[in-house]
């Protein structure tokens, strides 16, 4: 009699996913799967949990929660995990997103514009940039000009052009595929938030486990 070999299932949990409020979280929502076609469809529909109001809007799902559910469906499965063993589920509210306010955009733009301008002006005042520019013009032309407007205009344009090159971004246009410094900072910020959420959720799990152990002993 020919024995069937155990089906191999490769599973890679996604880093972060968004699920609409009120919808159950399935394996297909949080993971990439490689398996036989007839098994993959069944695996993707496995319901892992039904988020409750008390769970909050961020939920951590660990691989140790996923594997037993797979074994319930396929007891003899050979599971091969890939990558991180956890994923963060963000519950998305059904409230319609408001359109960006033009007035708020203009207000923030003006605040950033004048704030940046004052910062640059104060820096130039601290280092006496005017005297430096006068001295540079005198060294280049041999004449002292108390108001080197041409040099100052070129210097101002150079600051703007340098900022565009540094941030690799002008409105919606990027000069190359490299991430901008702002994108890198946002990525690191999101990564730190995810790590904090993971640590907090694991702490909650440990506290629940300790409380359950104490209750059983009582």
TrEMBL record:
Q: Where are the transmembrane segments?
A: 102-123, 149-171
The residues the entry assigns to the signal sequence are none
Q: Does the keyword Disulfide bond apply?
A: no
Key words of the record: Membrane, Transmembrane, Transmembrane helix
- InterPro entries, sorted: SporV_AA, SporV_AA_N_sf
Instruction: Tell me the superkingdom of the source.
Output: Bacteria
Sequence ranges assigned to domain Stage V sporulation protein AA in this UniProt record = 8-93
Q: What is this protein called?
A: Stage V sporulation protein AA
Question: What species is this protein from?
Answer: Paenibacillus odorifer
